[in-house]
């Protein structure tokens, strides 16, 4: 069964600090992995996409990594800001079955001043 | 502005009273889907549509219906809502380019309460 597991479930950090969120998946065959940011009460918005051949991709202060061998991804947030407080969802898409996407439960990040 | 629009955003209804949540996208995307989000369970797919007149069940389709008569609209229908359908619902459409690159664009969500 395709699964996506994220850790930690929640995280509290001080403004300006860095943090790393983890995503492990068992989705096969693998097509791509996206990290989404979901602000409270809003729809998720894509931050990055990782395909099989990519190891690292950055989007401003967000850097995603992918290890396709161990089926792990991480999202590193640098110099956190209050506006980074949100839920971060890892979504892995299969290469079959109409491109079905499997969602992780998300990591809730709280950045405190 | 490219967007996915859902209505209503908030709704309180009673058990058994049929309701429809509308979803419309202005990006000419072929793929659209519905999700529900419950605390501790993440986003779960209800139904999806690969194109006009083509719909298929997701992971949790029981108690829901959909239709795709035109590309831009993908309404979610609850024929006889029950309290366990109280949830936050999201509609999404996906960019073309095949499964390798498709990005999901989500609506703002519809919070439904069934009493």
Describe this structure as you would to a colleague.
The complex is a heterodimer of chains A (113) and B (115). The model of chain A has no long low-confidence stretch (mean pLDDT 92). In chain A, strands 2, 4, 5, 9, 10 and 11 form a 6-stranded mixed sheet that branches. Chain A has strands at 4-7, 10-14, 19-25, 30-38, 45-51, 56-59, 62-67, 72-77, 86-94, 101-103, 107-112. Chain A has no helices and 11 strands. Chain A is globular. Chain A starts with a strand and ends with a strand. Chain A has 113 residues and is an all-beta fold. By secondary structure, chain B is mainly beta. Chain B has strands at residues 4-7, 10-13, 19-25, 31-38, 42-51, 54-57, 65-66, 76-78, 87-94, 104-106, 110-114. In chain B, strands 2, 4, 5, 6, 9, 10 and 11 form a 7-stranded mixed sheet that branches. The termini of chain B are far apart. The model of chain B has no long low-confidence stretch (mean pLDDT 93).
Compact description:
The complex is a heterodimer of chains A (113) and B (115). Chain A has 113 residues and is an all-beta fold.
What's the SSE blueprint?
The complex is a heterodimer of chains A (113) and B (115).
Chain A: E1 4-7, E2 10-14, E3 19-25, E4 30-38, E5 45-51, E6 56-59, E7 62-67, E8 72-77, E9 86-94, E10 101-103, E11 107-112
Chain B: E1 4-7, E2 10-13, E3 19-25, E4 31-38, E5 42-51, E6 54-57, E7 65-66, E8 76-78, E9 87-94, E10 104-106, E11 110-114
Parallel strand pairs in B: 2-11
Antiparallel strand pairs in B: 1-3, 3-8, 4-5, 4-9, 5-6, 7-8, 9-10, 9-11
